[in-house]
Automatic annotation (TrEMBL):
Protein name: Aspartate aminotransferase
Keywords per UniProt: Amino-acid biosynthesis, Aminotransferase, Cytoplasm, Pyridoxal phosphate, Transferase
Gene3D superfamilies, A to Z: Aspartate Aminotransferase, domain 1, Type I PLP-dependent aspartate aminotransferase-like (Major domain)
Subcellular localization(s) per the UniProt record: Cytoplasm
Alphabetical list of PANTHER family matching this protein: ASPARTATE AMINOTRANSFERASE, ASPARTATE AMINOTRANSFERASE, CYTOPLASMIC
A GO CC annotation given for this chain: cytosol
Lineage, highest ranks first: Eukaryota, Metazoa, Chordata, Craniata, Vertebrata
Length: 412
């Protein structure tokens, strides 16, 4: 028999966050805690099906007018329209002027990928691979790979996190924008920056927008946590809406994985804001070509759940309450962890735990301290020191705080 044609295939390294969860599952220690994966957990440490989602799922199951025919290539029209409305706001000038469009996608990742594929084909000249794409340092690790796989050859980083002050490096960020070649693409986290939990203030966003406008830089927003940062959908969409009000053309990749708890249904939307109806329609016609060869047409269940919820005032109100429940639990865990660390006298300052927002906190633990937490304490967190606040519960808070205290005092 001839050797396998796959003999030369090298083994790819595992995806860190999924590997961490697999290691956690195998760990038999009863004290184990998973602070790695980016998903909401209840105070019992369990996944949460939002009550509004359960209700709408039953409505869908009982609706005999629905079937399993293919959706249009760009997705369910009422989902796309409502999803874009959530991002841009009811009063959006771009919606009123009919110069927006949506592409239903497989999660936020799908929206980023379809957006990246489009930009590579059509932005700044045809088949453009040389335009620089700027990603924050640090960022969600998939940003880089998505743009590389879409064909971009010049992926760069921009300053974002100031480790010493545990906050935003605004000057570094603005300097990088000043230096970037005109028409570069910038990936911006719309809110609840992953992994740092640190967002620009409205005033800082204004400064960012001013430089981007002057330097002709393209904003590609990634909105994966709308509602999680402040508990309010409108507040969390402030930056995107401000850029639209400033006349930018932009993309916004929306994920409904976290704020609807629909992780495995793969529900996302790429909102496109253009200058006029005609150019948005032309853009969408090209998006259709890209989707056709990627997943041909999207799945319906998650999109129906989101569309039904967003188009009914009563269900919408219920959803907002569900989002607030999740956001409030995160806020509570932040203040409880901070007060425990301060009560223990853990060296360093811990105000960043409550100042950071969204699902994650960038603890400041170094890789050796993280290793200690995993190996000695069975507490799983990313090597960057990022923890998912939802992994904390009233039952494991004391243990986690004492373990952080030990890690910081014993390991330098
Ligand atoms: C910043 C960021 N963008 C996008 C995504 C992708 O979300 P989805 O699971 O909907 O593809 C995530 C998920 O963790 C994220 O953290």
């Amino acid at each position: 028999m001839a050797a396998s044609i796959f003999t030369a295939v090298p083994r790819a390294p595992p995806v860190a966050v999924f590997k961490l969860t697999a290691d956690f599952r195998e760990d038999e220690d009863s004290r184990k805690v998973n602070l790695g994966v980016g998903a909401y957990r209840t105070d019992e440490g369990q996944p949460w099906v939002l009550p509004v989602v359960k209700k709408v799922e039953q409505m869908i199951a009982n609706d005999n007018s629905l079937n399993h025919e293919y959706l249009p290539i760009l997705g369910l029209p009422e989902f796309r329209a409502n999803a874009s409305r959530i991002a841009l706001g009811d009063d959006s000038p771009a919606i009123k002027e009919n110069r927006i469009g949506g592409v239903q996608s497989l999660g936020g990742t799908g929206a980023l990928r379809i957006g990246a594929e489009f930009l590579r084909r059509w932005y700044n000249g045809n088949n453009n691979t040389a335009t620089p794409v700027y990603i924050s340092t640090p960022s969600w690790e998939n940003h880089n790979s998505v743009f590389v796989d879409a064909g971009f050859k010049d992926i760069r980083t921009y300053h974002y996190w100031d480790a010493a002050k545990r906050g935003l490096d605004l000057q570094g960020l603005l300097d990088d924008m000043e230096k970037a070649p005109e028409f570069s693409i910038f990936i911006l986290h719309a809110c609840a920056h992953n992994p740092t939990g640190t967002d620009p203030t409205p005033d800082q966003w204004k400064q960012i927008a001013a430089v981007m406008k002057r330097r002709f830089l393209f904003p590609f927003f990634d909105s994966a946590y709308q509602g999680f940062a402040s508990g309010s959908l409108d507040k969390d969409a402030w930056a995107v809406r401000y850029f639209v009000s400033e006349g930018f053309e932009l993309f916004c990749a929306q994920s409904f994985s976290k704020n609807f708890g629909l992780y495995n249904e793969r529900v996302g939307n790429l909102t496109v804001v253009g200058k006029d109806t005609d150019n948005v329609q032309r853009v969408l016609s090209q998006m259709e070509k890209i989707v056709r060869t990627t997943w041909s047409n999207p799945p319906s269940q998650g999109a129906r759940i989101v569309a039904t919820t967003l188009s009914s005032p009563q269900l919408f109100a219920e959803w907002k309450n569900n989002v607030k429940t999740m956001a409030d639990r995160v806020l509570l865990m932040r203040s409880e962890l901070r007060s425990r660390l301060e009560a223990l006298g853990t060296p360093g300052t811990w105000n960043h735990i409550t100042e950071q927002i969204g699902m994650f906190s960038f603890t400041g633990l170094n890789p050796k301290q993280v290793e200690y937490m995993i190996k000695e304490k069975h507490i799983y967190l990313m090597a960057s020191g990022r923890i998912n606040m939802c992994g904390l519960t009233t039952k494991n808070l004391d243990y986690v705080a004492k373990s952080i205290h030990e890690a910081v005092t014993k390991i330098q």
